[in-house]
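TA notes, week 10

Several of you asked for a full example with nothing omitted. So below is the full record: structure tokens for the whole chain, then the designed sequence directly under it. When grading your own attempts, check the secondary structure regions first.
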């Protein structure tokens, strides 16, 4: 497959979606792991140290550029594939098999992805943008992210939006995790059950871990 086909053919687009999706899954693991330091009950010292390393070291800052490129590629290819699939099936199916053919969340990936994108824009405007603009977008003194979280998550509506964003992410991953590995060829009868099990467990753990963060701040379970 040529580089051009990688971005223009449907198979190429699916491959780009899978590789960027797996990259974003790795980011979520690191992000949830670092954020879990909020539960250290040390006034945010450990969390702020981790955030300081991520925000002030050249390697994570270069990886940050890759992360945003990954997000953009994943989103653009997803919308192009959705449009392409809709055009190819413009008449629609005569019979809808509902959940018997596939799960509702597998058929709603574009909608769930759009909700996650809206959540991401709100989320970046709460933390990433104020922090980076304070730093002048290069390396430099950051804001106290733990205190910022305390303030942001003292608003119930914000907590509700975050929890809904995390639930959408969970369902998006419930299909996306397995689909990404299947597309790159990790799929046969022997691995099918294992891949499904890991995919569902991962989606639930990530959804609960992230959703519990705003809830914990709101309920005063972290200090
Ligand atoms: C719900 C609990 C979450 C909390 C409390 C949280 C907290 C944070 C904080 C404090 C930052 C700022 C880091 C910095 O400026 O150095 C950040 C950045 C970021 N978050 Fe989250 N996050 C959560 C969930 C998510 C989710 C579910 C996603 C993805 C869908 C996500 C994607 C990002 C991205 C892309 C960045 C910018 C990464 C960077 O370059 O540093 N976050 N988050």
């Amino acid at each position: 497959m040529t580089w051009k086909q990688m971005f223009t053919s449907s198979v190429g687009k699916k491959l780009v979606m899978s590789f960027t999706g797996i990259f974003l899954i790795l980011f979520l693991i690191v992000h949830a792991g670092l954020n879990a330091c909020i539960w250290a009950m040390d006034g945010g010292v450990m969390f702020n140290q981790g955030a300081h390393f991520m925000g002030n070291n050249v390697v994570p800052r270069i990886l940050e550029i890759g992360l945003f490129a990954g997000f953009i590629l994943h989103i653009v290819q997803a919308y192009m594939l959705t449009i392409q699939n809709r055009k190819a099936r413009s008449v629609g199916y005569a019979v809808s098999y509902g959940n018997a053919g596939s799960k509702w969340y597998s058929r709603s990936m574009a909608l769930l992805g759009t909700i996650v994108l809206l959540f991401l824009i709100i989320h970046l405007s709460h933390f990433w943008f104020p922090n980076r603009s304070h730093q002048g977008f290069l390396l430099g003194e950051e804001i106290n992210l733990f205190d910022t979280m305390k303030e942001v998550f003292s608003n119930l509506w914000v907590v509700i939006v975050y929890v809904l964003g995390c639930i959408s992410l969970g369902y998006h991953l419930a299909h996306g995790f397995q689909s990404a590995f299947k597309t790159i060829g990790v799929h046969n009868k022997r691995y099918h059950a294992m891949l499904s099990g890991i995919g569902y467990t991962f989606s639930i753990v990530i959804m609960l871990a992230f959703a519990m963060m705003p809830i914990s701040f709101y309920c005063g379970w972290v200090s």
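The two ends are 53 Å apart (CA to CA). Use that as a sanity check on your answer.
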